Automatic annotation (TrEMBL):
It comes from Algoriphagus boritolerans DSM 17298 = JCM 18970. This is Dihydroxy-acid dehydratase. Keywords: Iron, Iron-sulfur, Lyase, Metal-binding. Belongs to the IlvD/Edd family. The keyword Iron applies.
Length: 572
């Protein structure tokens, strides 16, 4: 059998002037000539390390463990930085820049001499942006995730990101002082790693493990646990073999792999952001996937992992109880067991020996943590292209509810009015926020689980139906309808809701309707004036021009699909 020439040899295997230029400057790093001779696969390490992305701030260290594995297996590692999106700091929202980061990743991989790539992902958007970008190039690739931080401790209690929403309510009610709030900050974030609950970061790490893009246990080993470095080392060793076996992303990312990921997301009570990111990845790799798939495949699966925000514990605890392989084993009769993964084994083989060590953490199909999980996809005259709700994070008796709309025209209107004692609202009302969709904000921020009015919190109200075209943090909870599509800023029906209208939510029947006549609807539609979007230059201008809607993954229309890994022109 003839050995396939490595892609990197299109650069380093050249003679004459071209070869000189491609190799010479690399040698200023002290790299000996034999590394360029084509025997060692060049492995790119796509690193999202940044001190502004604290969830990934340990990645320099983790990359060293990864390199050790690559060297040991006979590869040649070359690390490169890409745009890193820190969820907690970026304004107006990291989601605005997910597509930009994915373009950085895609072009960095395609333009450079690498045979395979390891994607170092952690904080929420760093996973989808890297996977989307790499999928559009389609070379052998693996994901190495950050791992969750250790669970926080505050006043004798375990805490994590989901507690921020509870603290915020206590602060509003005067039960928690500013000094206590500051104390809780350090108590919550006491180790390296990403958010401790099954927020979006952990959801994304579970997604890549379920898709088969990462080694088993990638999703749950804590960042501070030495076994995270072992995993990095093993990932480094394996990517070299993956290149030799020439297994590309498109061979892993099949329709069956996507269906597995949807089922696993339901089993762990994963974030609603999963829908947007998985849809975008599917469209990059050319797999058909739409909103109804999320409802169909997740409806078979109850909540198996007892992890916040849907359950009680933390991702760290889930690792000690058996990790994601043990969760997947509980639902294996539903999974496509023959889906190939990056370690060369199938999902079925990877989970065959997984064991559960703690039934408080991992339920079974017969005795789940909660009977309903996954994603409910709603349709109706308020959301012709769909809206979503996470039943496991909602209040059961609000899942069928009709209430009077209290409308906030945008986030500023909400902030100005929500705590006004004269706001005409009670706990039966439906809170509606407009203009927080992909174009309206812009960037579709995580404001959909808008806080309840202070006067209702004082009465002990814990949850209300809330509807918006925005997103919700993966650590958030409540009876919250999100991702209403099309969004209000472009004339979606949400734009026509007025104070006092009645809205009917029926999750079992998957409907969301504004209870006004068709004539009234038309009258309001004719009078609609689109929101003025005050961005005239730069990336945000491109975003507003090219972004698609929530049900399509909020990607740019021109980024869907793959351009492959070939570069036809040379640089000199
Ligand atoms: Fe980075 Fe939560 S802020 S994962």
């Amino acid at each position: 059998m003839t050995k396939k020439k490595l892609r990197s040899q299109e650069w380093y295997g050249r003679t004459g002037k071209d070869g000189f230029i491609y190799r010479s400057w690399m040698k200023n790093q002290g790299l000996p000539h034999h590394l360029f001779e084509g025997e060692k696969p060049v492995i790119g390490i796509c690193n999202t390390w940044s001190e502004l992305t604290p969830c990934n701030a340990h990645f320099r260290d983790l990359a060293e463990a990864l390199k050790r594995g690559i060297w040991e297996a006979g590869g040649f590692p070359l690390e490169f930085p890409v745009m890193s999106l820190g969820e907690c700091s970026i304004k107006p929202t990291a989601m605005l820049f997910r597509n930009l980061a994915s373009m950085d990743v895609e072009e960095s991989i395609r333009a450079n001499p690498m045979d395979g790539v390891v994607l170092m992902c952690g904080c929420d958007k760093t996973t989808p942006s890297l996977v989307m970008g790499a999928a559009s190039v389609d070379i052998p690739a693996m994901v190495l995730s950050s791992g969750p931080m250790l669970v926080g401790r505050f006043k004798g209690k375990k805490i994590g990101t989901s507690d921020i929403w509870r603290f915020a309510e206590d602060f509003k009610l005067g039960k928690l002082s500013q000094e206590e709030f500051i104390e809780a900050e350090a108590a919550m974030s006491r180790s390296v790693g990403h958010c401790a609950p099954m927020g979006t970061a952990s959801t994304m790490a579970a997604m890549v493990e379920a898709l088969g893009l990462a080694l088993p246990d990638n999703a749950t080993i804590p960042a501070a646990d030495s076994r995270r470095k072992v995993l990095a080392h093993m990932t480094g060793m394996r990517i070299v073999e993956l290149v030799k076996e020439d297994i590309k992303m498109s061979q892993i990312l099949t329709r069956n792999a996507f269906e597995n990921a949807i089922m696993v997301n339901a089993a762990v009570g994963g974030s609603t952001n999963f829908i947007l990111h998985l849809t975008a990845i599917a469209k990059r790799i050319g797999v058909e996937l739409d909103l109804t798939d999320f409802d169909y495949f997740s409806s078979k699966i109850p909540l198996i992992a007892n992890v916040q925000p849907s359950g009680e514990y933390w991702v760290e605890d889930l690792f000690y109880a058996g990790g994601l392989p043990a969760v997947m084993r509980e639902i294996e009769k539903h999974l496509h067991r023959d889906a190939l993964t990056v370690n060369g084994k199938t999902i079925g083989e990877n989970i065959a020996k997984a064991e559960c060590w703690d039934r408080n953490l991992i339920g079974t199909l017969d005795n789940p943590i909660k009977p309903e999980s996954g994603i409910a996809v709603l349709k109706g005259n308020l959301c012709p292209n769909g809206a979503v709700l996470k039943p496991s994070a909602a209040t059961p008796n609000l899942l069928v509810h009709t209430g009077r709309a209290v409308v906030f025209e945008n986030i500023d209107d909400y902030k100005a009015k929500v705590d006004d004692p004269n706001l005409d609202i009670d706990e039966t009302c439906v809170m509606v926020m407009k203009n927080v969709g992909p174009k309206g904000y812009p960037g579709m921020p995580e404001v959909g689980n808008m806080g309840l009015p202070k006067k209702l919190l004082e009465q002990g109200v814990k949850d209300m139906v809330r509807i918006s075209d925005g997103r919700m943090s993966g650590t958030g909870f409540g009876t919250v309808v999100l991702h209403v599509s099309p969004e209000s800023a472009i004339g979606g029906p949400l734009a026509f809701v007025q104070n006092g209208d009645m809205i009917s939510l029926d999750v079992p029947n998957r409907t969301l309707n504004l209870l006004i006549s068709e004539e009234e609807f038309e009258k309001r539609r004719i009078g609609f004036i689109p929101t003025q979007l005050p961005y005239e230059r730069g990336y945000v201008n491109l975003f507003l021009d090219k972004v698609n809607q929530a049900h399509e993954g909020v990607d740019f229309d021109f980024l869907q699909g793959s351009s492959g890994s070939e570069v036809k022109r040379d640089s000199h």
